[in-house]
Amino acid sequence: GKALCPAATGISHHISPYGDIEPCPIIQFAKETIHDERGIKETLVQSKFLEDFRTLAQDTTRGCIVLERPDLLKELAERHGARDTTQRLSA
C-alpha cells in the first residue's frame, strides 16, 4: 500500500531555523536549503534527496522509517552526502 508518512507522500517538509530543507522534523538530514538560488519551490521539486527519501519510505514502511528502518535512512543520507543538520551533530 501507500505510505501514510506525510513526508513520504510529499505533502510535508521541515525547514530548520537555519534554512535546511529536511524531510520532516525528526529526520535532521538535508541536502538543500531555502537559500538555494533556484528558489524554494524549484528546490523542493528538483531535490533528488527528497525524491529518493519519498520513494524509500513508500517502498519500506507505512509508518515512520526512523522507527522501523533507520539503517536504510542512514544509507540514503550517506549516498546523497546529506548534512547532519542537528546542532549536536548527532543525527
UniProtKB/TrEMBL annotation:
Record-given protein name: 4Fe4S-binding SPASM domain-containing protein
